[in-house]
Amino acid sequence: MRSLWFLLLLCLQHAEPSIRSTGSSHEVPPLLNQMNMNSPLESGLGSKEEEAWLGMLFSQLSPKVKEMGTRVLNSRVEPLVQGTMSALNFGKAFKFTRINLGDVKPKLTNIRTNDARADSNRLSLDFDLVYIGDGDIQVRILGTNSGVRNVKISGRGRVILSPTMSQLPFVGGIQFLFITKPEIDFQFDGLAKIADLPVIKTKIKEDLLKDLKEQAVYPNRVTIPLSWTADPQLVWQPQMTGILAVKLSSVKSLPRRGGVRRMFGQDKADVYGILGVGAKEYSTSIVKNTQQATWDQWFEFPLEWLEGHMVEINMYDQDSSSADEFLGYAAIDVKNLIQTAHFLTTPTKGSLGGAQPPSRQDDQPLQSRLIKAKLQAVPGRKSKYNHIGGDIEVEMAWQPLLTIPGPTSDRLFPGATAAVLTVFVYSANNLAQFTGGMRFPAGHLPSPQATITIANYTHNSNAYRNTQQPSFNFGETVTLLHDWTTATLVISVRDTEKGGSFGSQRIPLSSLVGKDKVKTILPLLPANPSQTVTFSAKIRFPSSPSSASSSSSSSNLNRQSNRG
User: Fold this and answer.
1) Domain architecture of the chain: domains with CATH
2) pTM of the model
């Protein structure tokens, strides 16, 4: 614990000037001025001290966070809300006229440092975050000048320090993300209270949450690089270690509706569940008019590590004439396999089918376990049901990712994922010639963009203007089906201004088995070997250590036999 907080403080002291929170590059941030022999760092930190020190960390970052927040409101939130209003036939009836985010810092509680794997070069801590803004935000909405008040954002947050280093600043970067879906709320003042009408406000909140999930909810994150000597892949890209499989086995004791529906025997729910880890969610099939249901659908979630993550289950009653009705919420701690309360509610204890397992490492598989949990109401979530409650049973299994594929019979659950591909494109160099031998017009500097393609999946980097030496620093983690052996990874680079291609590299996925490519430099054009792309790529397989070891030994014996 002590080393983690010390690293957090040093990160601020030795951050690049562009992301420093205060002063010039020669000044010491006030947070570090408070370090002395009587500091809590010297004797370890209790929960109060943890909250205080993490709060001071956020205080130091606050000026940059507010600057970024203002930019996000103008560049992302305003057009997003305009699109929402237009979709509701109100036109683009929304614009920020004043943005002052105020001085209130987030309230941080329930702080926990996660156990680091022996082979890991990352540190992380989780916390409940509640922000209730005191800002002065003025808008023009529906032709009326008004204010936005009582802005609230809350969720379970995580800070990751990656990678750890042996020289200053000791970590390569800071990543921030929500590991559960956050809650957002706000109100409009004055005549613009019409925008608080459920149909408008619900649509705005849905779109805001969707955008936030794509930016900062696991596996997505906000990253602040601190060192130009650290491996950018470890600074920017999640490093998956296994696949969590989840099945919502059953629900029972759901509530019934009253009124006219009961008279016609339609007072029971058309029930379905949404299971999620962070931003990734899956929905079960719908079971009609029932208080209990069973499912046999397994869903997969690649994870960096088990510690701190929760599977969130939201149950709904499908309604064809209006919004689906909320039936209850439950969250399961995937490390300890017990129910945990929503951070806005009072704690509720679930139970494990059988004895609770001892603490285990992420590189060890977990056979399917059954967890029982109670459905809870969540503050702020409305429902036409007078009572929220019910019981669910959830099965979970964990399969580590290993370098060698094992037999299909080794799988601990009937999952679709046969392999996980991780690709990271660092840079391209000496971009001077398009395919076909065409060179640039005189004085032209390209705006390159890199593209990763696997079968029908394509992902583009940002475009970087006016450079022949772009640093892309972007990557993808892709889950693959059983036909992965015939697939090819294609990394290509093009000029977004002229539309010309600088060439590509094609890597058969089968060539990556047991042979990671690490910061590999290859030519984009065979005719121009100095025009290159730098990348890393690896493929991993959900398997058990014993079977992977057996497969590796068998492969070695076969190679020795062939040489003989």
Assistant:
1) 2-236 (no CATH), 242-402 (2.60.40.150), 419-545 (2.60.40.150)
2) 0.81
Strand partners, 129: 108, 155
Q: Where are the alpha helices (DSSP H) in 192-252?
A: 198-216, 232-236
| Cβ(174)–Cβ(124) below 8 Å | no
Read off the DSSP letter of residue 263: H
Of 331, 337, 330, 367, nearest to 352 (Cα)? 337
Mean pLDDT of 79-83: 80
The torsion angles phi and psi of 455, rounded to 5 degrees, stand at 55, -120
Q: What DSSP element (H or E) covers 66?
A: helix 47-72
Please report how many Cα atoms fall inside a 13 Å half-sphere around the Cα of residue 38, on the Cβ side: 1
As a whole number of angstroms, the distance between CA 369 and CA 354 comes to 9
C-beta atoms surrounding 481 within 10 Å: 11
pLDDT at 386 over 90: no
User: What's the full length of the chain, in residues?
Assistant: 564
Token code pair at residue 48: 């109060």
Q: Which residues pair with 269 in a beta bridge?
A: 290
At residue 108, what is the residue type? L
The top-scoring range by mean pLDDT among 20-29, 95-104, 354-363 is 95-104
Strand partners, 73: none
- Do the beta carbons of residue 148 and residue 137 sit within 8 Å? yes
289's tokens:
């008019």
- The answer to whether 334 and 245 have CB atoms below 8 angstroms apart is no
In three state form, how does the secondary structure of 360-418 look?
A: CCCCCCEEEEEEEEECECCCCCCCCCCCCCCEEEEEEEEEEEECCCCCHHHCCCCCCCC
* Confidence tier at 446 by pLDDT (50, 70, 90): very high
**Token pair for residue 67?**
């600057």
Segment (H or E) for 223? strand 222-225
DSSP state of 433: B
- What tokens does 194 get? 């019409």
Closest CA to 455 of 419, 489, 424, 422: 489
Is 179:213 a contact under the CB 8 Å cutoff? no
- The closest of 561, 516, 557, 559 to 233, measured between CA atoms, is 516
* Structure tokens that stand for 421 in this block: 């591909």
Mean pLDDT confidence for 154-177 = 90
Lookup: tokens for 38 = 């009587």
CB 114 within 8 A of CB 306: no
Strands 123-132 and 107-113: antiparallel
